[in-house]
Amino acid sequence: MTAAIMLPDPLHPIAEAEAEHAFGLILDGKLDDDAIVRFLIALTERGETASEITGAARAMRARMIPINAPANAIDVCGTGGDGHHTLNVSTAVSLVVAACGVPVAKHGNRAASSKAGAADTLEALGLDLDRAAETAEETLSDLGICFLFAARHHPAMGRIMPIRKAIGRRTIFNLMGPLANPAKVTRQLVGIARPAYVPIYAEALMHLGSEHSFVISGDEGLDELSLAGGNEVAEIKGGELAMRRVSPEDAGLAIAPVTAIRGGDAAYNADALRRLLLGEHGPYRDAVLLNAAGALIVAGEVETWRDGVEEAAEAIDKGLANALLNCWISALRA
Fold this sequence. Notes:
alpha/beta; 44% helix; 334 residues; 14 helices; five-stranded mixed beta sheet; 12% strand; 7 strands; Pyrimidine Nucleoside Phosphorylase, Chain A, domain 2
């Protein structure tokens, strides 16, 4: 360790370039653990700025293992940590949207605070995660979908994991996943678990070059579009940011409590996802349709929430999303 290396004062806002340099030092193991812990906790307690989030994301992007992807590829990903333990909505949305013909570079990980993350549930469905990582570019090109296992594409984060566990609370790194997609997507549906933070996070995403994205948060702190009532939505398009409110009724869907899509372990969530793809109706389907509509809008596939719901429902009801999952699993076994 080099004692002379100093982090900026986290009690005051840090400029983007300075933040990028600081997080580069952290990710490269140039500082001792105690200094990193103090820095991250102080930053969290003050509240991260858009410039700090942008700088941290740039440092993480510079150290990731990227893949090549179609120019129109999108990602559907949440920050997690909302504490609601719902079924895997964004994973299901990824399959449905890809079945609509939009390439989806799904970035995800195993569960950190829930019982089943995207990786856990896909594995329970029969997807070989190692093969998925090895063939990501190929399946994205051939099938229109891939799973980018965060642990495989962000080796620098291995240095940070013990520190995050020692801190035992949310830090800026909980916000980083959706901002560092290895496919370098510029169109995203990003869920965060803090409604008040939506415009700050969206400003960071805009600075990072987003072409068209929604940053979303349910009023109850859900890191996806919620059926329970209102949702904070920031739209980034053409270098501009606009805030709006979106409700299930805007998409022609019924209101339902968050408890209606409460999930379980990986096996439980995988079974629910498979039943959804086989046509089962209910709140889980509606939650997937609502979020899929948002993804289809940012992909440029549809213009309205209702049109998005209709196209997503058709992909399910015609068996396209289920067939895509089966093809994906089979391709990885070949």
